[in-house]
Amino acid sequence: MYIIGLNVYHGDASACLFKDGKLLFAAEEERFTRIKHAAGFPINAIRYCLENEKISLDDVGFITLNRNPKKRILDKLLYAIKNKLKIKNFYNRIKNFKNITSIEKQFEKYFQIKPNILKKKIIHFDHHLSHAASSVFPSEFSNSNFITIDGFGDFLSTTTGYFDGNNLKVFKEVKFPHSLGLFYTAITQYLGFKKYGDEYKVMGLAPYGKPIYKEKIKQIVNYKKNGLFKLNLDYFIHHSDGVEMSWLDGEPTIGNVYSKKLSTLLGDERLKEEELTQKHKDIAASTQKIYEEILLKILNDLHILSPSKNICLSGGCAMNSVANGKIIDNTPYEKVYINHAPGDSGGAIGSAILALKKLSKTLDTNSINNPYLGSSYKNSEIEKLLNEKNSIFLNKNIKVRFVENKDDLLRELAKKISNKKIVGFFNGKMEFGPRALGNRSILADPRSKNIREILNLKIKRRESFRPFAPSILKETVKDWFDIDDEVPFMSKVYQIKIEKRNLIPAVTHVDGTGRLQTVSKELNLNYYNLINYFNKLTGIPMLLNTSFNENEPIVCMPSEALACFLRTRMDILVLEDYLIERQD
Prior knowledge:
Elements: E1 2-7, E2 14-19, E3 22-28, H1 30-33, H2 43-53, E4 60-65, H3 73-83, H4 87-101, H5 103-111, E5 122-124, H6 127-139, E6 144-153, E7 156-163, E8 168-175, H7 180-190, H8 199-205, H9 214-217, E9 221-224, E10 228-231, E11 245-246, E12 253-254, H10 261-266, H11 278-305, E13 310-314, H12 321-324, H13 327-330, E14 335-338, H14 344-358, H15 365-368, H16 379-388, H17 390-395, E15 398-402, H18 406-418, E16 423-426, E17 440-444, H19 451-459, E18 469-473, H20 477-480, E19 492-495, E20 513-519, H21 525-538, E21 542-547, H22 558-567, E22 572-575, E23 578-582
Parallel strand pairs: 1-4, 4-5, 6-13, 13-14, 16-22, 18-20
Antiparallel strand pairs: 1-2, 2-3, 6-7, 7-8, 9-10, 11-12, 15-23, 16-17, 17-21, 18-21, 19-20, 22-23
């Protein structure tokens, strides 16, 4: 039986396809539309799943959604009436509600099917339970505590509970209008990062500052043992005036969520193009510190309530890899699991999992733990593209070669990277989730002192404070980091050993940390072998890894990878078994 899981009419719209409990395909809509965090109805992602399996909607047993607008509907209506939310913003929410609850009309529109054919096949699941399911079931823990944290979904921002290996038991919930995710978003916007999903920039900026504004920021949000945490709503407007936002087709938008009182507390907000000052960095550091302290207190309280040695995190806030890396040292938990798509896109997988469990179907956890679920291309397809671009290559003095043996290609590539060449690596199936994990990556030598500046300014064209990740052979982590942990999805930041930091300056952040990705033979053999060949040449068992893009979604098609290569200063592009190199 086939099941399609969806995240619709929210940021990072996505689709996935299960067959008999095995996850076959998954993709975010942004990869096809080239609009970051694309919202709306993921028509392209759905078509990708169906076409690759060579099936139609007639073959699909159920379509699941990671959102149930009818959930807590009374709470929502009473809150709207009691707080007299602005009509315009209330109307936008009702419109989004109608889109989600009448999703079959979208299928009728895009797939030309008759009305009411799909009505009985569509199942809505609670947003936060979908998040939790996407984490606890693939964790393969026999039991685990769990926490989901994000902005809001189905009127909740946070859920804690326990997983007994088969069922989810919810302990505590935090309802609208209180949200740790919204708190972080408010400071992100205040610091001049206005786009949806910019919170990671604050996390990257934080190590450059000191948390000297911590006491002031405590006035905005505070830990509450019985209620987990509470916002001081005087600093926000989402609960009263409402916030203009759009989750329809295209780029998601969200207006400022904070009130003028925030500027009274912290000073004037930073304008978009204004220089980042030390004060801004200190505010970022203080925000990150407060978030970490509240998260760790919640997790410790949860452990007292349910003393499991395991914890699973999901929701958009589970992408705060700095906080995630502090859990083991600051709580009783021994193992922390975060999947490759903890945000809303991964909720599509979670909703399908809930359907499978409801139907008492077997779940293939190995397939869910594999992030390489996207499109791939044959050498013949790439050859056709390269032939079309031959005149450009001649004009730009670019050499194209086909390398028949994959090992020969990887060995040569390792040597070129050791000689400070920057490589766009397009290989195998595209990753699902926010991270490039070796198949749609830009790779470089972690030993190079100036490579970070080159990548940020001349290739990625982004802020100079943004760090790069070390992809490291799984078995060598203990030799390079202060903790030995398996982190296949780049979800945790750990301290690099002091004596090793000067050896790998390109992937050592200003505070001595690195957001590591552990690479194994089992999950990605080609990427493992490439790093291993580099290790044999240099004695360094890692590569610098960053996503293959330039202020855009991660490249999906070979043509996009080629275009990115041509307009930036990358030295080499690998498209499967083709090596494309700028000549000196």
